[in-house]
């Protein structure tokens, strides 16, 4: 009897956890290796659009997510100084009826916890930091920093922006600093004085912005993330502490809605916004990548995790469609059906134009990874 191919997923972040669940549900022999010692409620806010909720429905955590997150009625874009509404994009009930799935904002940690819990425990290994990959042609040897090794037939690199799998395929190279930082803070709404916030607002000026939304269904925790130009970044640091004074200087003269949040800030951190140019390949031999490992982007469409999760679902769909006897064909089908969309989202995110005006977001939110017609690799060139 033939053994089913052993699939190793590297990284149990949002993309890797989704891939592992979906592979397990589809009957594949999968195991995910995560460097962290266990689950931790990391990160802050994240948008989960209908395009992602389609995947969460398949994984079986859509109801739990719906009761955890906040369901904004609209995405408001507002002028930095006057507060005037410059765009108003319907979400809420409209998203449910128009796209068939909801739109919500949630704490990334709460979302991640639901995804990790959906993975059967025997499929998940924590404390496994991949240090070296040896693709021998007929099998891949995975080496971990604890000295252990594992064999796999297929390796999925879901190991984020500094991916070891990407380094193996393309050589070590730091991501590019975009010249922008993001300040991030989450705190109780009860500490915000003198302003009634919408459920989801992006405040815009010509060179910077602040995105604001609730991260719980109870609307008791509010989150902001900015995009602010800053010439240089020390790439040895993944983030640094910021302060109310720095925020006041960066948003001097901005509307009271923004000032009310800065005044209420308890702790604020500053992150570099990083990206990579589109990669020349997404797979080689027995290795394939998804998410930030192959297309990290500025967060300005709030779709980075969404692209990782859509990638995961499409990869599993292509494994089922093409079979794993010829994994190169499955990988090619996957790339053919993901590269254009991920590249488009990467570009719009880079340009930071998303929903600044009353544009139609259907191409993004209306995407259904399980039902979109597949294009063949030859047709996509
Ligand atoms: C400020 C900011 C705001 C954002 N807001 C949003 C948003 O609203 N919506 C959205 O969709 N996206 C958002 N994003 C983007 C999103 O966070 C990422 O795009 C997303 O997390 C990528 O998922 P991933 O699974 O590819 O990688 P990650 O989530 O980074 O996961 C990678 C995993 O691999 C593990 N790993 C790494 N190296 C190894 C190794 N050698 N061995 C084993 N394990 C390893 C890591 O520990 C981690 O668990 C935002 C990003 C930023 C910076």
Task: Describe the protein's architecture and organization.
Helix 1 crosses helix 2 and helix 9 runs antiparallel to helix 10. The protein has a domain of 196 residues: FAD/NAD(P)-binding domain (3-Layer(bba) Sandwich), CATH 3.50.50. It starts with 5 loop residues before the first strand and ends with a helix. It has 381 residues and is of the alpha/beta class. It is built from twelve helices and 19 strands. A hairpin with a 4-residue loop joins strand 8 and strand 9. The chain binds flavin-adenine dinucleotide (FAD). Flavin-adenine dinucleotide (FAD) binds next to helix 1, strand 3, strand 12 and helix 9.
Keywords:
FAD, flavoprotein, 381 residues, binds flavin-adenine dinucleotide, 19 strands, alpha/beta, six-stranded mixed sheet, oxidoreductase, 6-hydroxynicotinate 3-monooxygenase, FAD/NAD(P)-binding domain, 12 helices, single chain, eight-stranded mixed sheet, globular, monooxygenase
Question: How do you describe this structure in short?
Answer:
The chain has 381 residues and is an alpha/beta fold. The chain has a domain at 6-45 and 121-174 and 279-380: FAD/NAD(P)-binding domain, CATH 3.50.50.60.
């Amino acid at each position: 009897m033939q053994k089913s191919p052993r699939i190793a997923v590297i990284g149990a972040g949002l993309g890797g956890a989704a891939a592992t669940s979906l592979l397990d549900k589809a009957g594949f022999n999968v195991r995910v290796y995560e460097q962290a010692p266990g689950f931790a409620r990391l990160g802050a806010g994240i948008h989960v659009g209908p395009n992602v909720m389609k995947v969460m429905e398949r994984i079986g955590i859509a109801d739990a997510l719906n009761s955890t997150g906040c369901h904004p009625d609209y995405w408001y874009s507002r002028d930095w100084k006057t507060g005037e509404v410059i765009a108003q994009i319907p979400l809420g009930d409209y998203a449910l009826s128009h796209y068939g799935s909801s739109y919500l904002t949630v704490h990334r940690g709460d979302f991640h916890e639901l995804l990790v819990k959906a993975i059967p425990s025997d499929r998940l290994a924590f404390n496994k930091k991949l240090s070296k990959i040896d693709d021998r042609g007929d099998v891949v040897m995975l080496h971990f920093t604890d000295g252990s090794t594992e064999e796999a037939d297929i390796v999925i690199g879901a190991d984020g922006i500094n991916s070891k799998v990407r380094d193996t395929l393309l050589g070590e190279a730091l991501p590019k600093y975009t010249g922008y930082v993001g300040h991030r803070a989450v705190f109780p709404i009860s500490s915000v004085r003198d302003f009634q916030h919408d459920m989801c607002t992006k405040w815009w000026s010509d060179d910077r912005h602040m995105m604001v939304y609730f991260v719980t269904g109870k609307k008791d925790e509010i989150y902001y993330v900015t995009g602010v130009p800053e010439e240089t970044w020390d790439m040895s640091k993944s983030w640094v502490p910021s302060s109310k004074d720095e925020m006041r200087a960066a948003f001097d003269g901005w509307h009271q809605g923004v000032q009310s949040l800065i005044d209420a800030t308890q702790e604020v951190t500053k992150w570099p916004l990083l990206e990579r140019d589109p990669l020349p390949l997404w797979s080689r031999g027995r290795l394939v990548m998804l998410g930030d490992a192959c297309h990290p982007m500025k967060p300005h469409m709030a779709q980075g995790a969404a692209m990782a999760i859509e990638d995961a679902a499409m990869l599993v769909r292509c494994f089922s469609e093409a079979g794993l006897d010829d994994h190169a064909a499955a990988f090619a089908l996957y790339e053919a059906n993901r590269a254009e969309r991920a590249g488009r989202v990467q570009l719009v995110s880079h340009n930071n134009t998303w929903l600044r005006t009353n544009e139609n977001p259907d191409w993004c939110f209306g995407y259904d990874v399980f039902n979109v017609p597949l294009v063949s690799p030859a047709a996509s060139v």
